[in-house]
Write a sequence for this structure.
C-alpha cells in the first residue's frame, strides 16, 4: 500500500504514514474547520492498511512493530474525538495480533499535552511511550 | 460618530485593564485563524518557561470555537467579542456572543453542571463525552469541559437579556500564571 502524506496547514496537522518504514506520524496543530472531512480519509486509510497487513501477515514471521507517532502542538476538542477514533482502530490492530507502539511527543513545558496523552492512554487502555521535546 | 477623545478613552481603558487583545466582529474560520496567528506571536513574546502561553492559547482556541457553536444562527446578531487580558497573577479570556433566549436554559444547565465539578469528575465526564456518539451538542460540551480542566475550573458566565428573542452570553476563564 502506498504511503499517505498530507502536508500541514495553519489549522491541520501533517500526516506522514510511511509504509516502507512502518512509521506513522501525525504532527502539528489540529483545529480544522471541518474535522470530519480531514480525519475520515486518514482513519479510512489506517483501516485499509490493516487489510493489506492481513494479507502480508501470512508471509511474515518476525514482525517489527508499527510505530504511530503523535507529535501535536495543539489539538482542539473536536479533533480529540477523532484522535480517539484512530486509537480505537489501533487497539483493534493489537487485538488482531499486531505489535503497535504509540509514541506521544509533547513540549516539556506543556503539562496539558502530557495529561492529554495519559488520558488517551488510560481511556483506550494501551501503553504509550512518552517523549518530551 | 466616534470622537478622537472617545478613541483615547478606549485606549486608556484598555491599558488600565491590561487588555492584550480586544476584537469584535464576525468570527468565521478565516478571521479566527488570522486572529490566532496574531495572538500566538504576542504570547511568544512573553517568553514563558512555564508553558503558560500554551495553556492560554489552548483555552483561547476552545473559547473562540464555543462562540460559533453557541451563537444564534441569526446573521444579524452574529457579531461576537473576544478579550484577552494579562494581569499580574492571571490571564483572563472573555468571549461574548448573542444567543437565543430559548437556548439559554439548556446552556445554563450545561455550564452549571461543569462548574460545580472537581478535576477528577471533569476528567471522567470528558472521557464519557469523548467515547459517546458524535453530535453537535456534545462536541460543544467537550470544549467547555476541556476549558474547565485546563483552567482548574475558573469559569464564570453571565447572560445579559437584550430583547425578547436574544441575550448576550459572556463566558470568562481565568488562568493562573503561577503553577
Amino acid at each position: 500500500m502506498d504511503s499517505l502524506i498530507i502536508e500541514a496547514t495553519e489549522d491541520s496537522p501533517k500526516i506522514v504514514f510511511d509504509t516502507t518504514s512502518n512509521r506513522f506520524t501525525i504532527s502539528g496543530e489540529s483545529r480544522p474547520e471541518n474535522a470530519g472531512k480531514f480525519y475520515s480519509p486518514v482513519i479510512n486509510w489506517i483501516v485499509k492498511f490493516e487489510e493489506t497487513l492481513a494479507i502480508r501477515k501470512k508471509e511474515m514471521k518476525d514482525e517489527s512493530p508499527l510505530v504511530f507517532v503523535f507529535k501535536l502542538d495543539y489539538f482542539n476538542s473536536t479533533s480529540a474525538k477523532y484522535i480517539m477514533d484512530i486509537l480505537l482502530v489501533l487497539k483493534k490492530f493489537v487485538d488482531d495480533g499486531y505489535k503497535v507502539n504509540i509514541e506521544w511527543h509533547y513540549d516539556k513545558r506543556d503539562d496539558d499535552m502530557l495529561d492529554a496523552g495519559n488520558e488517551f492512554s488510560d481511556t483506550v487502555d494501551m501503553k504509550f511511550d512518552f517523549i518530551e521535546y | 460618530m466616534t470622537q478622537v477623545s472617545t478613541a483615547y478613552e478606549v485606549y486608556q481603558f484598555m491599558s488600565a485593564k491590561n487588555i492584550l487583545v480586544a476584537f469584535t466582529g464576525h468570527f468565521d474560520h478565516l478571521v479566527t485563524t488570522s486572529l490566532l496567528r496574531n495572538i500566538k506571536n504576542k504570547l511568544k513574546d512573553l517568553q514563558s518557561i512555564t508553558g503558560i502561553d500554551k495553556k492560554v492559547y489552548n483555552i483561547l482556541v476552545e473559547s473562540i470555537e464555543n462562540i460559533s457553536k453557541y451563537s444564534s444562527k441569526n446573521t444579524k446578531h452574529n457579531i461576537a467579542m473576544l478579550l484577552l487580558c494579562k494581569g499580574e497573577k492571571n490571564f483572563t479570556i472573555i468571549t461574548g456572543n448573542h444567543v437565543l433566549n430559548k437556548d439559554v436554559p439548556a446552556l445554563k444547565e450545561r455550564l452549571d453542571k461543569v462548574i460545580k465539578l472537581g478535576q477528577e469528575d471533569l476528567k471522567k465526564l470528558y472521557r464519557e463525552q469523548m467515547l459517546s456518539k458524535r453530535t453537535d451538542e456534545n462536541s460543544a460540551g467537550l470544549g467547555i469541559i476541556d476549558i474547565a480542566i485546563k483552567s482548574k475550573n475558573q469559569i464564570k458566565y453571565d447572560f445579559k437579556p437584550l430583547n425578547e428573542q436574544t441575550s448576550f452570553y459572556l463566558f470568562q476563564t481565568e488562568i493562573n500564571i503561577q503553577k
Q: What stands out?
A: The radius of gyration of chain A is 14 Å. The mean pLDDT of chain A is 92.
